[in-house]
Structures are given as structure tokens and as C-alpha cells.
Amino acid sequence: MRIRTIVAGITVLGCAAVYADGAPAGDRLLLTHYCMAGNQPRMALRSFDASTGALAFDFIDATNLATPAAGHMHSVAIRIADANHIATEWQFHENGQTKMTETAKYTRVR
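Above: the chain sequence. Below: its structure as C-alpha cells.
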């Protein structure tokens, strides 16, 4: 399965969902990345700093990952700067090492 989202005329190859998980009160925050590589890594919140708006998620498992050494997004740092600005930094791992870092900055358009 390939995820393709069109946002304001721009093709985005992948997306992520952040959600509460755990019974009974959703005691952990998870992120699933629907990757253009065709796998779906899940990450758990490692840290959150309310004063800076920084969240850090780390890999816990994945679906459609051929082997643990196969390329996949392994972690993401998200910074919510204010109500209109978010920055992300994704780490792509292959063979147990970081192969690349992908950064993006988003600005709300009204």
C-alpha cells in the first residue's frame, strides 16, 4: 500500500497519525508513520517539554517491514513553535544506522 495525499496542489508521499493508546485512560501517546517506503513504523512518545513545545518519538515496531534492517523512519522530533508553526525532523534508519535526516517546517495558511 502506498499513501499519497494531495495538499494545496502538492503531492505528499506519506503521512502520520498521532493517537492515545493504552487502557483504561490512554496512558501513552503513539505515532504511526504511513511511509512512501511501504511500511508503517509505530513510535512511542519518549519525551515532551511543554515549555518549548518539543515532542520526541522513538521506534517500537512496524508493519510491512521486511526485516529489522530494512529502511524505515526510526524517530521523529516535533516542535510546536506556536499556533501557526510546526517543525519536524525525521530519522531514517537502514541496517541499524541513520541513513538520512528529513526536516520540514509547516506554517498554517488561513
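DSSP finds no helices and nine strands in the chain.
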